[in-house]
Amino acid sequence: MVGDNNCIFCKIANGEIPSATVYEDGDFRVILDMGPASKGHALILPKEHYKDLCEADTAVAAKILPLAGRIGAGMKKGLGASGFNVVQNNGASAGQTVFHLHVHVIPRYEGGPAMVSWEPGSADAEVLAQTAKAISAAME
Ligand code: AMP
Ligand code: ZN
């Protein structure tokens, strides 16, 4: 769906609300996050409305990672970043707060914080095998 009336990212992606735009093509607008985790924190917004990655058109979704790579390279060359994180949240329990698919590209700098990471847990081989089966059996 294009132009969901209640969706702020639809309005930004389609140019109804101005934004600090890094890049634009027929499928995407890339903007700077208004609450950046670091200088240059960017959001890739599809112009089409998809709630999350599970809903996204696969042809559009397939273009996101190469675009993230180009943006990250631009951050390294243009901002002096030494690395970058690509982050994408699906669902409130995963930290998604805006329910229009978006991908964060977060530049990282020498001496600055890296991606906040998780506390590694543990699982035995049987649990891993059962868990892998549960996911694969449910995949479409
Ligand atoms: P998420 O938690 O993955 O849903 O990320 C939503 C992100 O969108 C947050 O990092 C917000 O700072 C950012 N954000 C929300 N509204 C706007 C806006 N109007 N312009 C730019 N960034 C926004
Ligand atoms: Zn939307």
**Classification by helices and strands:** alpha+beta
State the helix count: 4
Instruction: Bin the helical content.
Output: 25-40%
Mean pLDDT: 94
Provide a compact summary of the structure.
The protein is α+β, with helices and mostly antiparallel strands and 140 residues long.
Which key features would you list for this structure?
alpha+beta; binds adenosine monophosphate; globular; binds zinc ion; 140 residues; 4 helices
Topology record:
Layout: H1 8-13, E1 21-24, E2 28-32, E3 42-46, H2 58-61, H3 64-79, E4 83-87, E5 103-108, H4 125-138
Antiparallel strand pairs: 1-2, 2-3, 3-5, 4-5
Adenosine monophosphate binds next to loops.
Walk me through this protein's architecture.
The chain is built from 4 helices and 5 strands. It has helices at residues 8-13, 58-61, 64-79, 125-138, and strands at residues 21-24, 28-32, 42-46, 83-87, 103-108. A hairpin with a 3-residue loop joins strand 1 and strand 2. The structure holds adenosine monophosphate (AMP) and zinc ion (ZN). Residues 8, 31, 33-35, 43, 89, 95-98 line the site of adenosine monophosphate. Zinc ion binds at residues 4, 7, 9-10, 49, 100.
